[in-house]
Amino acid sequence: MKKIVILALSFVLVASLLAGCKSNNQGGENVNTDNNKNGFDTSNEIVVVTREEGSGTRGAFVELTGVEEKDGSGKKVDRTTKEAITQMKTDTVLTTVAGNEYAIGYVSTGSLNDTVKALNVDGIAPTTENIKNGSYKIARPFNIATKGELSEVAKDFIDFIMSKEGQEVVSKSYIAVDDNAAPYSGSKPSGKIVIAGSSSVTPVMEKLREAYLAINPNAQIEVQQSDSSAGMQAAIDGTADIGMASRALKDSEKAELKDVAIALDGIAIITHPANTLTDISLENVKNVFIGELINWSDIK
């Protein structure tokens, strides 16, 4: 009888231990290995998310990170990996990265939200102070561009953008280019302005539009979102009074347009919040986006 009881107790004990192991290991997954810290498995492939060609954010990003290089003939070549997922707007980049634990992408620092995590680059966080003092290297200007003589209302709106009131609007999301701008003292003319271009510049332009119309209700302002290249072409063609670009103008654009920086902005490298990586070198940013680093464990 004692032997039966002992055997029964032994069976219960072994079964309990086996059940506990299965519960902790989820059917054999490597929960406690070095490759799987806090549930993030660094052996997984990196899912690269980029913007479309023509995007000012992409143009600035590939230039600043070295993803774009000159070939043997001196022509600039964007070497972004063909495996990258291409998104047409800032918000879809955010949504894609937020929805994939192993994704990496880039967006304007002014567009960051808590659905993603911004990485430090070479130990430097993409903060306003670091962008302004130049220590965060992936940064660019927000430009507007015009062609020829401006209408009275277009000139007045640009004067507002560069005024104390306009730069205060800019500084709520981005970095003002003039901290000592004079107060707005325009004539508040009537008329219509069409503004077209970068999806990165569009949000701050909408806020500038709203603030200006509160001062000058005689004006009408239409903001058309596309990308930087399309915005510059619209200004050249005359289909827009003002073009928006989230990059420096190309030489061919500068030959036909007059441009001015209205704000400064950083480009943040973003991952899913569950990603255990907090810092990445500028060299590794390039190597990820050209497809030389494949798995998260490759980033040292």
UniProtKB/TrEMBL annotation:
Its main location: membrane. Residues 43-165, 184-298 form the PBP domain. The keyword Lipoprotein applies. It is a lipid-anchor. The keyword Transport applies. It holds the Pfam family PBP_like_2. It is found in: Cell membrane. Keywords: Lipoprotein, Palmitate, Phosphate transport, Signal, Transport. Gene3D superfamilies: Periplasmic binding protein-like II. Residues 1-19 form the signal peptide. Belongs to the PstS family. The complex is composed of two ATP-binding proteins (PstB), two transmembrane proteins (PstC and PstA) and a solute-binding protein (PstS). Part of the ABC transporter complex PstSACB involved in phosphate import. This is Substrate-binding domain-containing protein.
